[in-house]
Amino acid sequence: MIRVEFYKQVHRVRTYVLLFIIAAFPALLTLIFRVARPAPPASAEHAGDDLGFIVLASSSGLNMAIATLGHAGDVILPIVGVILAGSAVAEEANWGTLGYLLVRPVSRRRLVASKLLVISALMVAATALAVLFAVADGVVAFGWQAVETPAGATIPAGAALARIAMATPYIAWSLAGVISLGFFVSSVSSSSLNGAAAAFGLAAVSQILNSLPVLGDARYVLPTHYWRAWESLLVSPAKWSDMAIGAAVQLPYVIVFLALTWWFFKRRDIVS
With the CA atoms of 207, 211, 216 and 220 taken in that order, what torsion angle do they form, in degrees rounded to the nearest 10? Predict the structure, then answer.
């Protein structure tokens, strides 16, 4: 069933559109920097840690890739994730095929598990493709040089590429909490829009709350607070603590939303 579900998801027009968006975003952002040619700061130390890698994007191809991934992880990949998760089960109910799937016979547990595994695999693949496109476009536009960090350090290109590769699974996992909510709402709804809207709403509200210093330490439990923790790998020396905390923060969201998914879906009255 997993193979059938994977084939069905991959060969939908929606998937090709999402793939185009994943490929087009780094190309467009890189082209803008290439045409505008903003001059990198004379000293990375004057760039300021608060401005991140975006002010150093034109310093090298990998700097451009890092800047691109920062924005892709905040916007493009969450959009891809909420669309995939929000439609996972709801679209079957909307098409009237959900009941037929369970008559084959396929248990509800197996149906939910197969759809969750396929969505998870597609999100990992989407993240990996976003990284590949960002690196390829950046290197083509700005060359293969060492990475300049906001703190003024320099990381050799090979080491920086390895760290970007290590950051890839974290970027995918950091979206797990938001995607789990979308999957839960999809399992109890007949509209794909409901799941996508709920997940996107969680991400948007979390981002807004995360920007409010008045909340203090309460921001640390928000699902989006550690989305960019992977950038701590791209300093010298690399730091893992924020990524470890960020990975742990996603677990309660995933556990709660997936438990709710199973609880409600196994009791859902499916008439078609």
Answer: 30
pLDDT of 50 > 90? The answer is no
Asked if 202 contacts 178 with a C-beta cutoff of 8 angstroms, the reply is yes
**Contact in structure between 41 and 88 (CB atoms under 8 Å):** no
The domain locations on the chain are 2-265
Taking a C-beta distance cutoff of 8 angstroms, is the pair 73, 107 a contact? Answer: no
HSE-CB of 14 using CA atoms within 13 angstroms:
15
Residues 6+ apart with CB under 8 A from 7: none
Q: What is the pLDDT of residues 169-216, one digit of tens each?
A: 999 999 999 999 999 998 888 788 899 999 999 999 999 999 999 999
**DSSP letters spanning 87-152:** HTTHHHHHHT-HHHHHHTT--HHHHHHHHHHHHHHHHHHHHHHHHHHHHHHHHHHH-S-PEEPTTS
Which pTM was predicted?
0.88
For the packed helices 108-142 and 157-173, what is the interaxial angle rounded to 10 degrees?
A: 150
Contact 160, 62 (CB under 8 A): yes
